[in-house]
Structures
1.
Amino acid sequence: MSFDFDATVVGAGAVGLACGRALAKRGLTVLVLEKEPHIGQGVSSRNSEVIHGGLYYPTGSLKAKFCVEGRRALYAFLDSHKVDYRKCGKLVVATEEAEVERIEAIFQQASANGVEGLEHLTGAQARAMEPGLNAHAAILSPESGLFASHDYMLALQGEIEDAGGSVVLSTPFERAKALPGGGFTITAGGEGGATLTSGLLVTAPGLGAQDVAARIEGYPADRIPKGHFGKGVYFRLIGKAPFERLIYPPPIPGALGTHYRKDLGGQAVFGPDLVYVETEDYSVDPAKAAEFEHYIRRFWPGLPEGGLTPDYAGIRPKLHGKGEPQPDFQLRGRDDHGLDGLVALFGIESPGLTSSLAIGEAVVGMLHND
């Protein structure tokens, strides 16, 4: 049967574009649908732009596997496309004796995950690297870094289009229906939208994952995992950035916690925290500065009084609520939902940006196994 496109991807964030690129690399004609007027306007534009080493995730999980594989592939991709990045390294810091056991567990987890170059540091060694840091002990992860995530997404879009594919903006996905002989009819574009046919379908719309799955005829409602909005806000430092490396305290329940980075523009940014919300509210309450100051002074006692200014907020597509264990990425194929030629992604939060190239390759592998 002839289709308008070999494959359609819903969502032009980092993961959707990486899926589109992986499909286009296989010689398929690819369409990427994006509801916003620009690529990467959702989860992909409201994060820390950190390249994660792969330290924290349970060994054997998709997060651990894709983070390490994706990070290795990402540095090579950034080099080949001349996308700006800085492999600055990360210090995971125990600010007191009681936290040493927690960071040692992270070291063991990271080693089991195949993370390269890890080092134990004494407090004195950590302070010699980053004067002004309060550190009882630390772990150095030299593979961690920062990158220009939007330039990365533009490069992914360029590869899709160079291969003859299309990234279509301001075109929301409306619905899809499986065809009897394979493939899908897809309607997109809002009121009076266009209908097209596609042999394969990948849904990677971030916060909209549950809604999009519910709009696919025949997708079992009981196989759509419940979603939660995890909001995190960021504050920027007024003044000179105090540290060169990423600084991370031990993780908080459900997230990695409020950390420090010196962004590619040379400014210091702290965040995110984690609060569960019901709607996509991207406001930043200036009153939260006091809470941030108290937390940051655990690892940077020299933070000036009143030195923080509100910056931005992001919302992460979480599959767990407050107090619940943090689940793995969910890549749902035919064995889960019963529809040939469809892979639906759920809960692609951190480290999804770092993992994006590896996720794209895994999605192609799942579709080929169909």
2.
Amino acid sequence: MTYSVAVSGASGYAGGEILRLLAAHPDVEIRTVTAHSNAGQPLVAHQPHLRSLAHLTLQDTTPEVLAGHDIVFLALPHGQSGQYTDALGDTPLVIDAGADHRLTSSAEWDAFYGGSFHEPWTYGVPELLVGGGKGRDALRSATRIAAPGCNASTVSLSLAPGVAAGVIDPGDIVSVLAVGPSGAGKSLKTNLLASEILGSANPYAVGGTHRHIPEIRQALAAARPSTGSGTQDIRISFTPVLVPMSRGILATSTAPIVEGVSDAEIRQAWESAYGDETFVQLLPEGSFPRTADVLGANTALLGLAIDRAANRVTVVTAVDNLVKGTAGAAVQSMNIALGLPETRALSVNGVAP
């Protein structure tokens, strides 16, 4: 069976990456691409690398245009997807790459986003530990999927094994991330101009203000075998730093070691969580990833260090924010929901140099 697909926000970075992956997918047909201000223009005027889709023209993003497809991807700015999702009730599968359907708490939404709160959808991180199982368990029957925030899924995948196994204390997590500007989208912003970021590193959303914080706390709370304890005891200091690379996240996350836990038990927690995963891989002891190793790939590479002097575990994780962080997670989740091979149209191989 071939599934018909519409992609909204197709002129942006996330939409373009979804299209790049779907263009190589044998089970889908990309029929419709939409945009707002760029509607009426050829897709390749805004995504010139997508030569196989040169026949497509950007249409207006309206419920009527998006309706009538088997699958709809929404790659819109945060707060804009919700106005369309209610109107797509007859669409068999809808995947939102924005934040509108990620959070389960309306209070957290109000505190970090504001505007209308929309019901939470199945979270699109298949490898994430959830209540003794994994995220893919719920994705197998999902018809509405919330693709993750790139920073949020990177930190959550980094630390969920330790939280689930009870070998780290989630009450004192510190995460510092080097991130590329493509994560901020394609809209023109002065602080993202090349002249502003080349040769510089700039922190942003410092002091607990980044919107991905409640998403991380929600995911780590769900990683526990018993998910009833909530997020109250999960505290994270989260600092992203903008660096001059177009793609990529390198997240360094640390947390205290629980008293009495051995080094072997710590490493075993991560090995057990990801030992059979294709796209989330724990590197050998003493090895740590580079963002260059995951460029264009749907992989998250993790390096684990045990710092007994500081009594903390350190996890360094590299992802391509546009692939495993966003579009790759969305397509991987789509594959699972449709009963297709999970790896279809997705690669573990990056691009080098």
3.
Amino acid sequence: MKKAILRSIRAALLELGSATKVELSHKLGISFPTVSKFLTQMAKDGEIFSTGLDGSSGGRRAERYAYNPDYMLGLALFLEKTETNYTIFNCSGDIKEYGQTSGVLTGPIPGLTDQIGRIIAKYPKIRSIAVGVPGAVNNGRIIYIPGYEQFHQFDLKSYFEERFSIPVAVENDMNAAILGYHLKGTQTDNPTLIYLNFGQNGPGAGILVNGDVVRGSTFFSGEVSFVPQYDDRNFLQALEREAGSEEEALREKEIDAVSRLIASFTAILNPHAIIFCINEVSSSLLNLIANRSAAYIPEEHLPELCTSDWKQDYLNGLQHLGLDLMMWEKR
């Protein structure tokens, strides 16, 4: 109960910018004495600060409080084959540092531990860690991550929480990306969206249905490599480049494979949009994919095809997960 009240007060102050005890009591449905008790302790800890007294309306002037966004910091990082990208952010989402270090997925797990340890030593106010990985994740355990066998069936969440005594979230890369894209705001309330990435580790998809990220019954959703497309090939195999193939023929094969996948998503989920990584697909290529997709699905039912900055969306999604952990942090 104490953690829930503390989280509510933190979230309300960050949302409102500032508030009095009476305003918080009314907004949260928490008694005035309880709000007063929590704010007194939070002010003592430096978590909130007074912005002064409100104007007088005939009675005692109320003191107004604001949250100190730098009281806690979060670490968001995602692992790729060739590099680790990370951000340090405060409770308002302001970026304190953006960095990139060497990749650790192909090495022993302690290499990643050392990377995180050095960052925490530099920023001792870090109170949450959100890690993105190119694999399927079930409650912090990596259950499928082809090519990086040392991480397979590894409980990364428990491992880091035990070593750093900081709450940790571990998320699939495309789930984090679709969440980050959605948080930027869309023209549709509760949209259904698909985010496609071809990346360093093979194709993957993030799926959002009616505003909620879909992870599936065994947390395996979005592993589109396995989608059967031709008599003897799945989606991943259809994208593989054969030695000696001419560029034009290769492009035609890839366009057809992607268009068939779009047709499958359209027939099953009828999404509002399918998002591609901006550095992977040009506008002219999107037009070719849209035209080919119309050969498989009536054009009026096809989703909008668009592009976005995958890396930024990915980090935004991880920061959201990290911020949620910070809101529940105990003093």
4.
Amino acid sequence: MNSGRLVNDAGQTAGQEESDPGGRPLAETLPLDALRFSDSPRTGGVDTGHVQKLARTAGPLPPIVVHRSTLRIVDGVHRVQAARLRGEGQIDVCYFDGTVEDVFVEAVRLNTSRGLPLTQADRAAAVLRILGTHPQWSDRLIASAAGVTAGTVAAVRKRSTVRSEQLNTREGRDGRLRPVDPAEGRRRAGLLLAERPDASLRQIAADAGVALATARDVRERMRRGEDPVPRRFRGPVAGADPAGAARSKQVEAASGPADADMGLLVARLRKDPSLRLTEAGRALLQMLSVPLVLESDRARQFVEAVPGHRTSTVVQAARGCARRWLEFAEQLERRP
């Protein structure tokens, strides 16, 4: 995600010190007065109750994380305060090597994955800050650092005044740059496939700046004689007549009903004997009913049930389910 790493003096990459005390890497000891307190992702400041709890802990406190070049505390402000409360004058540290901008991102990442969790307000503020320093990062990449969903990042990006509209690509979690407009990447992949039919899909994906799965989908669509860009990715064509645009919107509305109509559609399907009287039909009706649970305010309880450290995993699973349904819908549309 970034170029910085937690390392000790032996050049070893640091692990999860707090979660694995037995395997803690060697750390240097620094005086507390040498450390810098600045730019914490916690908007509410230090939690004195948590400091007192740590101070009462038996044994040495786990090493904190410090930016090597500035000695700024990346993770462990509460441990430093607890050490002061104990009357100690020094603490073990592991170093983070990275840019000043990456320091804040690492602080957010560490504080969302362990220790005292960041509040929702802290995470929202962190997303806005990271958008300012890393506007080229994708919504998913920022979400993985801040412990929020990609949808939350997209909403903050849309509301923010961060000047990112000139960026044509964004960096993903795998470090690759991809086009902000998925249609553009698909068109580029289609042109490359036409020009170099013998090239590997991996090479086409790399040159077009798209995912391997996207390149594969473009190739399959072209083999079927279809547009490389699915209808859902196509924007209005410049110069198109208003009547044609209106008809296009009507077609899209007919093929993709609004969420408010989902309940009515499923209710109608449930009345159809041809579906209710077969095992596969009943299973399909049951699966179609599951997304209705996520409508309106009921979705909030499921959102809040997901712990921060599992957010990205649940998001990936949910998106995977959505892709499966889209593939199923396309199979139905292609059925003779």
